[in-house]
Design brief:
26% helix; seven-stranded antiparallel sheet
């Protein structure tokens, strides 16, 4: 780690050739608990990916029981392909800040990596990652990018409508595989061109959208939205009026106000 820190201090970022990640989710209940293995390779303009996701602890469950619980019936999913080189670059940025240990301890993640100028994986370039919220969030984003690139999941789309004095209709579309986010706005009768926004702004929006707890029984189909009000579609086909369609715990809080202000200012 001292060697990596020295390179950073000198303004030199060592490029990773291959990064291997193993992680699992012991805190997640069955049938949703899983183990991941991801091998990311530098292909110059892309990040090559070999991906495996295996659900754990399902031995005593039938496929019908798994589906009834809302789980994926497929026990193991594999995919090989490529995503944006931006993902490997993001991993390169955070790896020098990670604390790696020889023993597993409380860690749920093991990594090993080879720099481009190395011929083999040096012992200091591997270990169990000490709990790190930023790293864990990045791995979740990386998994989403892989699942989108493989076609298993669709790009994330969030829509916000304000039917007040000046009508506003904003659609946010995130392409995780390319690590790009776009917004399209209709203000009154004027449709603006699609505009790319910074990924950090997208993370802020995502946090605001999903930190609010929506009341599922108050979801509204788009064709039945009232003539006035403010509405959000955090997932396809499920519209909620703000602030009335959030749970009681959120009604008097500032989270909903912050969410409305954020979309109104985009």
């Amino acid at each position: 780690m001292k060697e990596i820190a020295l390179y950073l201090k000198q303004g030199i970022m060592k490029k990773i050739d291959t990064l291997y990640i193993e992680t699992y989710t012991p805190e997640v209940p069955i049938p949703f608990s899983y183990a991941l293995s991801i091998e990311a390779t530098n292909l110059k303009e892309q990040t090559g990916i070999a991906f495996k996701k295996e659900y754990l602890g399902r031995e005593g469950l039938s496929e019908e029981e798994i589906i009834e619980e809302g789980g994926e019936p497929e026990a193991v999913y594999r995919w090989e392909g490529a995503i944006s080189i931006k993902w490997l670059e993001q991993l390169e940025k955070i790896i020098p800040s990670l604390r790696l240990h020889k023993e597993e301890g409380d860690s749920c993640c093991f990594i090993s990596y080879i720099f481009q100028e190395e011929t083999s994986n040096d012992k200091k370039n591997k270990g169990f990652v000490e709990n790190n919220a930023v790293w864990e969030y990045l791995i979740q984003e990386l998994q989403q990018a892989i699942l989108e690139a493989s076609g298993k999941e669709h790009p994330l789309s969030i829509r916000f409508i304000s039917k007040n004095e000046i009508p506003l209709d904003t659609t946010l579309t995130a392409n995780f595989a390319q690590r790009k986010v776009f917004i399209t706005k209709i203000i009154g009768k004027n449709k603006n061109k699609e505009e790319e926004i910074d990924w950090s702004m997208f993370q802020q929006i995502l946090d605001a959208v999903f930190s609010v707890e929506y009341a599922p029984e108050e979801a509204i189909p788009e064709q039945k939205l009232p003539a006035k009000g403010i509405f959000i579609e955090p997932e396809p086909g499920k519209w909620f009026e703000l602030p009335t369609s959030v749970t009681r715990a959120n009604k008097n809080g500032k989270k909903t106000e912050a969410l409305i202000a954020l979309f109104s200012a985009l």
